[in-house]
Amino acid sequence: MKLSILIPTLESRKEQFKKISEELSKQIHNKYDNEAIVIYHLDNKEKSVGQKRNELITKANSDYVVFVDDDDRITGDYVKSILDGIESKADVITFGVDVSINGGKAKPCIYSKDFTEDKNLETHYERIPNHIMCIKRDIAKVVKFPNISNGEDSAWAKKLHPLLETEYKIDKTLYYYDFNSQTTEAQK
Question: At CA 170, angle to CA 100 and CA 15, rounded to 5?
Fold first, then answer.
């Protein structure tokens, strides 16, 4: 298996999970059944997001892993584009992300292993690769997410960053990060 798409989710987010899992199934079914799989972890907040992310990486039996958060969206060519990128055998496959905060106008977020830190700029965001980028599983499993539910992703990315030596960049948006302060579960 080339790719495991990992989704931590909650009982209270069944509708969001259903939407994203149906979209992923539509992209994988019949075309990439032998190359990509969706693995999810559903609970009722018994475990931290960090713990669930660690367990999902452990369950994955693929060359690469990527996380999709249940309240975000992906493009119709998300799976195909990432599988094409995996052919490069790079440590990390990066792609564009559009970030919308509380329904506001989306700003592009650029990810690269060459960035030394995360930056919030007027026209865009710059980020070191984090959980929503596609990473070789053998590298991803070396670093553990902290056992917390808020900030686990950036803490993990900072520890992972020095291990990323090669990058393949997909030069288009594949992911829509739709942050909403009213509906977020991780910050409650």
Answer: 40
